[in-house]
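Hi L., both proteins are below.
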Amino acid sequence: VEGMSLDALEGGTNWQFESFPEYLDMFEEIGIVPNVAAYFGHSSLRFHVMGDAATERAANDDEIGKMKVLLREALHAGAIGFATSTNEAHNGWGGVPIASRYADDHEVRELAKTLGEGRKGLFMLTKGEHTTVPFLESVAAEGHHRMIIAAMLWDPSHPQRVFDEVQEITDARERGVELYAQVGCQGITQEFTLRSAYPFEPRQAWKQAIPLYNDKAAIAELFSDPQFRADVKADFNKRAVTSFERQWDKVTIIEVAKPEHTHLRGCNIAELAEKDGKEPLDWILDFGLTDDLDTEFSVEISNFDEDEVKKLLAHPSSTVALSDAGAHLSLLCDAGFGLHLFGRFVRERNDFTLEEAVRLVTSAQAEVFGITERGRIEPGYHADLLLFNPDTVNQGPLERVNDLPTGAERLNRRPIGVHGIWINGVQVADDTGILRSKSRPGKVLRQFSFQH
C-alpha cells in the first residue's frame, strides 16, 4: 500500500520493538530530529491479534476484546489516537485490501469507544466511498471522542461532493460532535508506470493486474487480452468516488524507456489517442507494451481548482494537512504543502494573510491535535521554529533521488526561501538544508489534551 518499496521496507525497518509502548521507547532510545506523535494503527493491531485472518474477515468479540486491551495500553503509553482506513484505494501486497478494510461497523464502534474512556485520543480515518459522515458522526458521538476525517479533496468528477460532506461535518459540530475535515492545499498529482498503476487500482477490473506487477511477461499478456481491456473500459465508465475517472487529458508522459519515444515526453494521452484514432486505454496499453512497460506517467487526480480549494482551506470545520509524507514515495511528494500554502495562496493569490496561513499550520494544528505548549511563539512554549523569506518561500520542482534503504528511489522537493529550522531550541537546518550533526533534539510527544 501507499507506493512504498517492499525491499526498502524490509531492509530499513528497525525491529527493536514488538508492542506499541516499545515502539515509542525505541524512538527515545535512538533519538529523533523532529518531534513525533504516533497513532496506533488499526491494520497492525488486527494482524497482531488475528494473524492471517486480519485480511479475511471481521473480528469476533473475543478478538475485539483483545484489540481494546492493546489500544488502551497504547493510549496509556502515549499514542495520540487510533488510525484506520476504509478507503478503496488502500490495498496491500498483491492487491489484497489492507486489514482495516475488513473491519465491520461493530468492530469500529467498539474500538472507538475505547478512545472516549477519559478522552485520551483522536480517531483518525481515511474514508472510503461507502463510509458516510452520518455514520462517522454516530461513532464519534457514541465514543465521546474527537474525529478527523480524510481526505477532503475537491474532485472535478464530483465537484459538489466534498462541500456536501463538509456541511455534514459542520452540522455534526453544531450538534456537539467533534468532527474535523482534513483538507489539502495542493493538487494531487501521482507518477506511475503500468506495472505500478496506483491511480487505476481502486477499479475492480484492474485488480487482476496488481499481483502480476513483478512479472513483466504475465502482465504484458494480460494487457494484450481484449476481454481485460473491455472490462477495464466498462469499469472506467462507472462513476467512482476515490479513483481515476477517464481524465486522460490529465495523464502525461514524463519519461520513456526507448530513445525512439523521447518526442512523446510531455504529451497527454487523450491527444495521442485521438491522433491515432484509438480509445485512450488502448493507446496507453499499446504504447506501454512497445516501451517495455517502463514508461513513467503523471496524472492530475484532484484539488486543482484553486478557487474551490480556497473555500475548503478557509472553512471553520477544516484542518489543513494531507502531506502524505512518507507514503507514495515513488508517486508523489507533497511534504512541502506548508511552503506551497505560503507561496501560492498567500503571496501569489492573496487568498490569506501570512498570519492567517501560519496559524492554519501551527497553532490551529496544535489545538486540533491536543498538543500543548507548542504552535505559538510565547514565553514558556517549546521553541519549534521555521525561518523563511515570505518573498520567495515555496517548494522546488520534483526530483528523483535514490537514498532509501536498498537504494530504492523516491520523489523529493527541495525547499525554497527557508533559512532555518529549530526543534526544541536546537537548529537542525539552514538555507543549505539539513545540518550534518549528531544532535537529535526531537521529543516523543505523549501527553495530549482533548477536553472541550
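That was the first. Here is the second:
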Amino acid sequence: MREKDMKEKIISVARDVFTSFGFKKTSMEMISKKLGVTKSSLYYYFKDKEDIFKEIIEREAKEIIDKIEKSIERIEDPEKKLKEYFNVRMRFFLNIANRFKTFKEEYFEEYNFIGRIRKNYDKYEYEKVKEIIEEGVKKGRFVIKNVELTAFAIVSAAKGLEYEIATRIKRKNLTKNLENLIDILFYGIVQKG
C-alpha cells in the first residue's frame, strides 16, 4: 500500500474510533487494532493520537471553508450570501457535533487542544463575513457604521451558538433558531415606526 493511501486509511479509521469513544478514551492501540496493523505502523505516520486528531480537525476546518466558499460563490445579493454563509456554517457544525457525539462533554476541555486550528478558521471566518458586509455596504444593501465591529458581532454570535448546537439543539430546532438569529442580525430587536 502506498504511503499516502495508508495515511488516508489511518485517518479514516481513527475518525471512526474518535467518533465512537472520544479523544480521551481513544488510544493508538485501539486505532491499530481496528486498522489491523501494529502500533509501530501507526507511529511511522503519526507521532501520537493527538497528531492524528489534529489532522482530522484540520481536514474538517478545510472542508467547512470549501463548503462555505462553494455555497456562496454564485450568490450576488449580500444579504442572501450572509444568510447562506450562516446556514451552511451552522449545519456543518451540527453534522460534526452529531458525528462526534462523544465530544460534547469534551468540547471545552479539548478547545485549547485545537486552538491553533480554530484561530486560523476564526480569522478566515471574520475576513469572509467582513468581505460580505463590505460588499453589502457598497451595493447599498446594508447600512452599517462599523464594518469590523459588525463582522466581529456576527462571528461571535455564530460561535456562541456552537456550544448550544453541540450539547442541546436538535436538528429540527436548528432551522428555527438560525432564522431567529438571522432576523435579529438583519432587523434588530427594536420595532421601527
